[in-house]
Amino acid sequence: MLAGQPELWTSNVDIERQITAGSHRCDFMKPAWFTQTLVYWGMNIISAEGALWRKHRRIVGPAFGPKLYKLVWNKTLEIYRDMIQVDGWKDKNSVNIPVTQRITSKLTLLLISTCGFGFPTTWFLPISRDFFALELTNPRDTPPRAADGGMPIQEAFGIFSETIVLAASIPTWLWYLPIPGLREVRVARKRLMAFMQEQVAERKALVAAGDMRADAFTMMVEANQDQSNKYQLDDAELIGNVFVLMFAGHETTANSLAATLAYISLHQDIQNEVVEQIMSVVGPDRDPDYDDYSKLDKVLAIFYEAIRIMPTAHAFVREATEDTNLTVQNPVGEEGTKTIPILKGTQIIIDMVGVHYNPRYFEDPETYKPSRWYGLPADSEQIAAFGVGPRACLGRKFATVEATCFLALLLRDWQVLPLLRAGETKEAWGARVLTNPRVGLTMAAADFPIELARRKRV
Ligand code: HEM
């Protein structure tokens, strides 16, 4: 190594466990650069470390409980119905979806906005600008113009989301040059900040009036207002947490749901098996309810397997805060472990693609095989994609509940097929769609189309 900090890449879950233990005895921490893009709005649960992280977790954590998950389930049902109605699918036998990610993104953003924050959902319709041009044909969906004629809030969110990584790497002085693209990003960020401050002021007034809702936002506002509470959040931390939950809560799940639809479109046999379970648990007519969640393990398995094969959280990083050691298993077939000395400052990168394709953990890792997860408890740590230990994903059940409900509803009504180009085979479609992922803050399949064909009820 000539310059910089030493880096070690690993595909080993035991090392993941050792470096993400997160207790005060752990010699590893998230390095500041890793979460820098997320601190823009304020310190937050994902970026904080040590005692500061414990404070954030203590405040945000309690919102993630059974009441929230039930709400997520019921809201998913409502949104699915709206989607069928608003997008005009009700009387169609076949629907072509040019960009699958637009549907999954819309679903997950609406869910985190309503269930996590109680925000008015029409304000948070999907976020990219071309989406509005392509899909918002129903007057109900017209994005609200800001009363002052300024940038609509969803548009601001879209610009912010698309430029989050780029913006973090720009030096401050560059923002002030008269470059139109940068000006737009600056305006979007100002607009979002003003919106968040407005929302915070409104929610503070509600909390002061005793209107205590059970969403994460209300809990955070309460912690911000309570002077006697030693775990107080200041205004920047409050807004910082709102933003990270919006991002962590929507993009990861949207990418994973889209990947699920891509993989099952190529595996009709798996779809049939899953639909059989949906029919036996829920039947053809009634709405699935939250009690069905734990019985729909095959539905959850198609989601888990898509995350395994295309892990949206593709890497996590920790830095050694002291000279320390890691214990590493010997290669497969050899007993025992060896100790590897790690110097203070070394970055350890858990490569989730490597973990998920590691034959030590998965037989035939290249194959999409949801049956490997059948019957597994929904919170099993065998799926390492949500992290392990105390810093594991707080929103895992939020994500799996929304995915299970949405997929159960969709697959009961529709057969998912790849939307092929003229002369294209299924195999060529699979290679085009699934072998060129976009890798940024998260990993995702590049935009791809599917066809939904209405299932015939027998
Ligand atoms: C498929 C969906 C998701 C995946 C694969 C995923 C993955 C992850 C991973 C790997 C971590 C740990 C990162 C690290 O240790 O460096 C994490 C943390 C986190 N995730 Fe998720 N996530 C998903 C969905 C969600 C959702 C829906 C929410 C919120 C509603 C959420 C909120 C969080 C939070 C708050 C943390 C930080 C926890 C802490 O440090 O205490 N995630 N996620």
TrEMBL record:
Task: Please provide the record's keywords in A-Z order.
Answer: Heme, Iron, Membrane, Metal-binding, Monooxygenase, Oxidoreductase, Transmembrane, Transmembrane helix
Q: Which InterPro entries match?
A: Cyt_P450, Cyt_P450_CS, Cyt_P450_E_grp-I, Cyt_P450_sf, Cytochrome_P450_monoxygenase
Q: What family is it from?
A: Belongs to the cytochrome P450 family.
> What is the native source organism of this protein?
Mycena sanguinolenta
A Pfam family annotated for this UniProt entry: p450
Q: Can you name this protein?
A: Cytochrome P450
- Domain of life of the native organism: Eukaryota
- TM region(s), chain numbering: none
Annotated heme binding sites:
C393
Pathway stated in the Swiss-Prot or TrEMBL entry: Secondary metabolite biosynthesis; terpenoid biosynthesis
Question: Which GO molecular function entries does the Swiss-Prot or TrEMBL record give?
Answer: heme binding; iron ion binding; monooxygenase activity; oxidoreductase activity, acting on paired donors, with incorporation or reduction of molecular oxygen
Localization: Membrane
Q: Which GO terms describe its cellular component?
A: membrane
Which cofactors does this protein require?
heme
